[in-house]
Design brief:
There is one protein chain. With 579 residues, the chain is α/β, with parallel strands linked by helices. The chain folds into 4 domains: 1-30 and 193-344, FAD/NAD(P)-binding domain; 31-61 and 518-579, no CATH class; 71-188 and 348-394 and 479-499, FAD/NAD(P)-binding domain, CATH 3.50.50; 399-471, Orthogonal Bundle (Recoverin, domain 1). The chain is built from 17 helices and 29 strands. The protein has a 5-stranded parallel sheet with strand order 7-4-3-11-23, with no helix packed on it. Helix 1 (32-56) packs across helix 16, helix 1 runs antiparallel to helix 17 and helix 5 packs antiparallel against helix 6 (231-237).
Length: 579
């Protein structure tokens, strides 16, 4: 029998509750005969993932810079961070164009964050998803310092750094001068001031989180297996609450459920009836930033997997023994006994970004990220750039230049725009103004909505009002590895072809984000793929997901390590040792 579930209907939303009985869900591999089935996965993973990786491999080599700069005119460039934006920037940069390139980061490695949920449960070895940063730093004039930047002085072009490692010199602080500063420092976790989150929750952001959380999960199973515990205590220790229905929360819940059904069930059979995984999400669908079709696929997969999903709910308090959840539909707060709460939602500024934003308060009005212009230069500065999660781009508005845009659209010069003229205009400016792409499916409806006199033509007043409405369709770039990677490559080319010579971007093209689609693993060897023209879910999407991530590795070592771990997990299972 499948897990029992019931649907609770409110006036406006549907809330799904899934009651899981692990004794009725059997996806474990238990015998030698099943090892043959596991062996097949070896070929599927090696052949399928490799073939997909090769198929997706399409790298356009950027043109080499033609700039020739005398040594006495070369600049000092400082890079903060070692994440997606920083590493792509470093690898795309031509360091010989600069006097000195200095990389500062509290960690001396790059972390492949999309696969971090897999490392938590042992699907992957944590060492397989980290890259030594020094292995990717080339050039005799490139230096790396393992330290944390604590403050930025944009007036004097200096930064203050501090050795944050366990082994510190007598004076752990030092300062660096820069001509240009590139920030790719990531983001913090937004707890929304929820009581108990900082003290009692686990997070999935750093490689150290993986070992800490896995040990805790195994500790819960070992403790729950002790002979003298009551049923209430066992249920508390074996109830795992995940907060956040975005990609990180969904993928971690899916990986955890796989770990339980494929491995832990084999060793902890006696306590399986007490195990439950609950995901709390404030929206009424999982992966709500994806298309509605993908969200529905994910909802259905979680239902089949037996993951208890609380929609339209938010966590109000976390203690070491419980998680309080407010159900928006029912209008009441329910306290769930649980010894494990994983917080996987919300981002906030790091202390360094907050310090810089405060010093540029006249220009920085966003309290969640540093605001940059279309070339990713931090507003209020002329030589500081910000990439990835720590930044948001102040994108170009149609309304700000509506007069010139109207003249461009008015082909016959009669002072009025027909639907045909507006359609042609929208198509011609969509690359420069991405918000215009969003309204393509309802172009005619928007035209008619703003044609107030129903004349079939737009006046200048009606056209300007329409553009103001279209500008509201603008959304910030998502805080993803894909965005940070593209920004890192883009800024590297800015420095190679423009900024290395002089601090001018007059002839430089603005940053344009090219969305390549979004993957998410949803459990049971099922993934979803959200592309503009393709919505795919299932085993094929899972093969493509693995192939795409193999393709994105920065070294052959990582590709081999990850492929080996995947095969080893399918054939031999995940390790359940606690240390």
């Amino acid at each position: 029998m499948l897990p029992m579930y019931r649907r609770v209907l409110s006036s406006s939303k549907q809330v799904l509750r899934v009651q899981t009985n692990y004794s009725t869900i059997n996806r474990s591999y238990s015998s030698k005969s099943d090892n043959r089935k596991r062996g097949k996965w070896l070929w599927w993973t090696l052949v399928g993932a490799t073939a997909t990786g090769v198929a997706l491999y399409a790298v356009s080599r950027p043109k080499k810079s033609k700039l020739v700069i005398p040594d006495n005119e070369k600049k000092t460039l400082v890079v903060l961070g070692s994440g997606w934006g920083a590493l792509n920037f470093i690898k795309g940069l031509e360091p010989h164009l600069f006097k000195e390139v200095i990389v500062v980061s509290p960690t001396n490695y790059f972390l492949f964050t999309p696969l971090l949920p897999s490392a938590v449960v042992g699907t992957l070895n944590p060492l397989s998803i980290v890259e030594p940063l020094r292995a990717h730093i080339g050039g005799t004039n490139v230096k790396f310092y393992e330290a944390v930047c604590t403050s930025i002085d944009t007036q004097n072009n200096t930064i203050t750094c501090e050795d944050s490692s366990a082994l510190k010199p007598n004076d752990p602080q030092f300062s660096l001068n820069y001509d240009y500063l590139v920030m790719s420092i990531g983001s913090g976790t937004n707890t929304f001031n929820t009581p108990g989150v900082e003290e009692n929750c686990f997070f999935v952001k750093q490689i150290t989180d993986a070992a800490k959380l896995k040990n805790h999960i195994l500790d819960c199973f070992e403790t729950a297996s002790l002979p003298h515990l009551s049923e209430e205590e066992r249920r508390k220790f074996l109830h795992f609450v995940v907060v956040g229905g975005g990609p990180t929360g969904v993928e971690f819940a899916a990986e955890l459920q796989d770990f339980i059904l494929e491995d832990l069930k084999h060793y902890y059979g006696a306590v399986m009836p007490y195990v439950k995984v609950t995901l709390v999400h404030s929206n009424d669908h999982l992966l709500n930033t994806y298309s509605a079709e993908i969200s529905q696929m994910t909802d259905n997969t979680f239902l089949r997997q037996g993951i208890n999903t609380l929609f339209s709910a938010r966590v109000t308090k976390v203690t070491p023994e419980s998680v309080s959840v407010f159900d928006k539909s029912a209008g009441q707060t329910i306290e769930y006994p649980s010894a494990t709460c994983v917080w996987a939602t919300g981002i906030s500024q790091t202390p360094l970004a907050t310090q810089l934003s405060s010093s540029l308060a006249e220009y920085q009005k966003n309290h969640r990220a540093l605001t940059t212009n279309e070339h990713l230069r931090v507003l209020g500065t002329n030589n500081v750039f910000a990439l990835g999660d720590c930044a948001t781009v102040d994108q170009r508005k149609l309304y700000s230049t509506w007069t010139s845009l109207f003249e461009k659209a008015d082909k016959d010069g009669n002072g009025l725009l027909t639907l045909e003229e507006f359609h042609s205009f929208a198509k011609s400016v969509s690359k420069e103004y991405p918000q215009m792409k969003v309204i393509f499916p309802r172009l005619e409806a928007i035209f008619q909505e703003h044609d107030k006199d129903q004349s079939g033509e737009l006046s200048t007043k009606e056209f300007s009002a329409l553009l103001a409405a279209v500008d509201k369709e603008l959304t910030a770039f998502p805080a993803t590895a894909q965005v940070a990677s593209q920004q890192g490559k883009y800024v590297a080319q800015l420095f190679n072809h423009h900024l290395a010579k002089e601090n001018s971007l007059d002839n430089a093209k603005p940053f344009k984000y090219n969305h390549m689609g979004s993957f998410a693993y949803v459990g049971g060897n099922v993934a979803v793929l959200d592309l503009e023209s393709i919505k795919l879910g299932g085993f094929v999407a899972w093969i493509m997901w693995r192939g795409a991530y193999l393709n994105q590795q920065f070294s052959v070592r990582s590709m081999i390590s990850i492929a080996y771990d995947w095969c080893s997990t399918h054939v031999l299972g995940r390790d359940t040792s606690r240390f």
